[in-house]
Amino acid sequence: MPRLRISIPLIAVLIAGCATAPAPSGSASVGVPPSVSAATTATPAPASTEPAPTGRATSARELVAGSGTLPAGTYTRAGFRPPLTLALGDGWFAGTLSDGFFDVQQDRGTPDVVAVQFARVEGVVGDGSSMTPATTAAAAVAAIDRNPGIVVIDESTSLLGGLDGLNVVIENQGASHAAVMRVAPGALGIDPGRRLWISLFDTPDGLLAVMIGGSIAEWDRTLTLAEPVLESVVVAAQ
Questions:
Q1: What is the pTM of this model?
Q2: Residue 192: CB partners within 8 Å, gap ≥ 6?
Q3: Of 33-42, 78-87, 143-152, 175-184, which range is least confident?
């Protein structure tokens, strides 16, 4: 997989919300607990190398939980530090919205659910499926490499708004759900038949993960849907 360069000036994505949306049903369930699991494999979409603009869009809507699709437009999350906005086209739903984690989804409730996720990582599953504290991006990738429940299919470097990061792409080729990391709302894992792209960055606010999850069978479509969202992210100047 080519090196991913995400030119989004995102320094640390923290969620300060407490509402959660119902997790998708079906084999691609997103979360353990269900309302939190990042369902699924997330993989990276190649992103633009053009620098994204800074500043905050005054017309951005608050991203809130709901049962229907979100109107196309620009969204933000109150309490995020740094404040950020992202643009969504048609077909996106709000997923889990909670402290330290949020995502938006397409094809919710199906085995091919697509998720674009932002998280502050608290722990990573490594040897013997044990959870170890998240310290640095390099240490997290090393732990993921030792996770017996998943298969690492690619590793590379990443650039996110001037931050150097590390990418790791994993699959669940087994028959049962595999835990991957702990985020503020709970454990995040990956279901069988899913792929997860994880980009990890060391920030002043802790270890940041930007993730894309989708089914192995529909991975190309997952990247096509997720790429515009990643490229639209704007972080307000501090």
A1: 0.75
A2: 27, 172, 173, 174, 175, 176, 177
A3: 33-42
Label residues 193-205 b or e (16+ Cβ within 10 Å = b).
bbbbbbbbbbbee
149: containing domain: 4-65+73-235
- Scan for tokens 């938006």, then name that residue: 104
Phi, psi of 232 (to 5 degrees): -85, -15
How many structural domains compose the chain? Answer: 1
More confident residue, 102 or 23: 102
Nearest to 187 by CA among 149, 218, 233: 149
In the chain, the amino acid numbered 189 is G
- What CATH number is associated with residue 26? 3.40.1000.10
d(CA 156, CA 21): 32
Residue in the block written with tokens 């702990």: 182
Q: H helices within 161-233, ranges in order?
A: 219-232
As a whole number of angstroms, the distance between CA 151 and CA 203 comes to: 27
- The residue that leads in pLDDT, 102 or 225, is 225
CA–CA gap between residue 41 and residue 190 (Å, rounded): 6
What is the C-alpha to C-alpha distance for residues 111 and 38, in angstroms, rounded to an integer?
Answer: 13
